[in-house]
Design brief:
Keywords: ATP-binding, Nucleotide-binding. This is ATP-grasp domain-containing protein. GO terms for molecular function: ATP binding; metal ion binding. The chain is of the alpha+beta class. Helices cover 40% and strands 22% of the residues. It has three domains: 146 residues, Rossmann fold (3-Layer(aba) Sandwich); 75 residues, 2-Layer Sandwich (Dna Ligase, domain 1), CATH 3.30.1490.20; 188 residues, D-amino Acid Aminotransferase, Chain A, domain 1, CATH 3.30.470.20. Strand 2, helix 6 and strand 3 form a beta-alpha-beta unit. The longest helix is centred in the last third of the chain and has 21 residues. It is globular.
């Protein structure tokens, strides 16, 4: 036996062409098995997550504007797939080939198929399975794989319907970042202003650090205006929120001097403002105390994101500081291990894990974050929780892919999504890349600017992420970027 084996090895060594052909065939066969083992399908269904809110926006022009603004972020969430070598991306809007190639170059992605349904109802999962040609094409591709991982920005009723249709067509579908159907209620409940507030009230004795601004939940604009006016007169400030909102819409913040001091006049004015948008009639309204915050202080709005795996494992992904306008609109983040002092970080992480444990016990699965407010009196308030992919999920996944598991200490991240170009005429994506070439991300130096999307360029708005080895370096790169952008005619 030993001799025959020796002769066989000798024969292979003396026939390099045969050996190479066998090795190549074996390698290709192995690669084929890997490629055909699992298909990842990612769906950017941001509007489905907020459909109950956006569908109530009036007038229709304003609603369509809000939907388009949400969908324009589709390119950003290609980066939520930064670690996937191959995947299918379901987008509600067309993504340019230029940006697709740019994304692939940044993430070394071999292949990404972008499918865009013809219908544009805002419900992209529904638009997909009612688009016969596109859906059939997807089924043909899916049947080549042993299993399909269906992942989405948010877990919506339409998402579950899509999963069911795939199962009926004998596709082995897994949803690793979504609750089981019997626990789907956790998405809307914990993702609502009233749901997280109820959890805080129930947890007061067990977790004293889990506190929210003092407030009440009511139904109806008239009662809300009465309660809010009373609070404003007594406390010189008040905040009103819809149970579900979108990007700062559905929030009214009134500070001292912004409303009449006379109770009746104040009530009337609040009621008038609530009557301007239909969504105040659709949801419960939360009336909260106004927390005094220094909006010029970068540390005022901490945020932490978790992922609950299908197994129930809780994973803290990162914490960051959110950039928020005086009107309560989010426009970016800074991310780094040292961005929050150790004492504050420990408190945020501890509270975050406690909330994650409650979500896990209720059956929630997938990503979620917790928005917090740091007040001038050294208190840390939980503001809300988003049970979906978040404004930082794509940034986190891209950063993790570029810098590895030590990303949190190895780089300082700046992400912004509201820079308005001063030029009066829209600039093409490729032209912009050439213009800012000196500050673009350099893979060898591991620093520079990555553009998060091209869709907003049509309205002269820019989304970007910046990496530097420390805060000072990252902000210097941002300064250099803005200096270049200011030269664009």
């Amino acid at each position: 036996m030993k001799k025959r084996k020796s002769l066989k090895r000798k024969k292979l060594r003396s026939s390099p062409s045969l050996r190479n052909r066998r090795l190549i065939k074996k390698k290709l066969s192995k690669t084929k098995r890997v490629n055909r083992n699992e298909l990842v399908i990612y769906i950017f269904n941001v509007v489905e997550d907020e459909w109950s809110f956006t569908s109530a926006i009036q007038p229709l022009e304003k609603r369509y504007e809000a939907i388009n603004a949400l969908n324009n972020a589709s390119e950003c969430y290609l980066f939520a797939n930064a670690s996937n070598q191959e995947f299918i991306y379901i987008s509600p809007v067309k993504i340019s080939n230029s940006f697709k190639k740019y994304f692939q170059g940044i993430c070394n992605t071999k292949k990404v198929d972008i499918l865009v349904p013809i219908r544009k109802t805002g419900l992209v999962c529904k638009d997909l399975y009612t688009d016969k040609f596109l859906f059939n094409d997807l089924i043909k591709k899916a049947k080549k794989y042993k299993k399909v991982s269906l992942i989405s920005y948010s877990t919506s009723p339409e998402f579950y319907e899509l999963k069911e249709r795939l199962l009926q067509l004998r596709i082995n579908v897994l949803t690793p970042e979504a609750p089981e159907i019997e626990n789907a209620w956790t998405v809307n409940f914990f993702g609502s202003k009233s749901g997280i507030r109820q959890l805080a009230q129930q947890s007061r004795a067990e977790e004293p650090d889990f506190i929210m601004p003092d407030g009440v939940i009511c139904v109806g604009k008239l009662d809300a205006a009465k309660i809010a006016a009373n609070r404003y007169i007594n406390e010189k400030g008040v905040v009103l929120k819809t149970n579900k909102g979108s990007g700062g819409d559905g929030v009214l913040i009134f500070r001292d001097g912004e409303l009449p001091r006379d109770y009746k006049s104040c009530e009337k004015r609040i009621f008038e403002l609530l009557s301007e948008d239909g969504y105040w009639d659709r949801f419960p309204i939360i009336i909260e105390e106004l927390i005094n915050v220094n909006y010029n202080n970068i540390s005022s709005f901490p945020n932490i994101e978790f992922k609950i795996h299908k197994s129930g494992k809780i994973e803290m992904l990162y914490y960051c500081l959110m950039m928020v306008t005086g009107e309560g609109k989010y426009f970016g983040l800074d991310m780094n291990e040292d961005i929050i002092n150790e004492r504050t970080a420990a408190r945020i992480i501890d509270t975050g894990y406690y909330i994650a444990e409650q979500y896990d016990e209720a059956g929630y699965r997938g990503h979620f974050d917790i928005d917090l407010i740091s007040s001038g009196n050294s208190k840390m308030y939980v503001c809300e929780s988003n049970t979906r992919n978040t404004g930082g999920t794509d940034v986190y996944k891209l950063t993790r892919e570029l810098f590895g598991k030590d990303f949190f200490s190895d780089t300082y991240v700046i992400n912004r999504d509201n820079y308005i170009l001063k030029t009066q005429k829209p600039i093409e994506f490729d032209a912009l890349l050439k213009k800012i070439q000196p500050v673009l991300f350099n893979k060898s130096k591991k620093e520079g600017v990555i553009l998060s999307g091209s869709g907003y360029l049509s309205v002269n708005s820019l989304l970007y992420t910046i990496y530097g080895n420390n805060k000072k370096r990252s902000y210097k790169i941002q300064s250099d970027l803005l200096e270049i952008l200011n030269t664009i005619d």
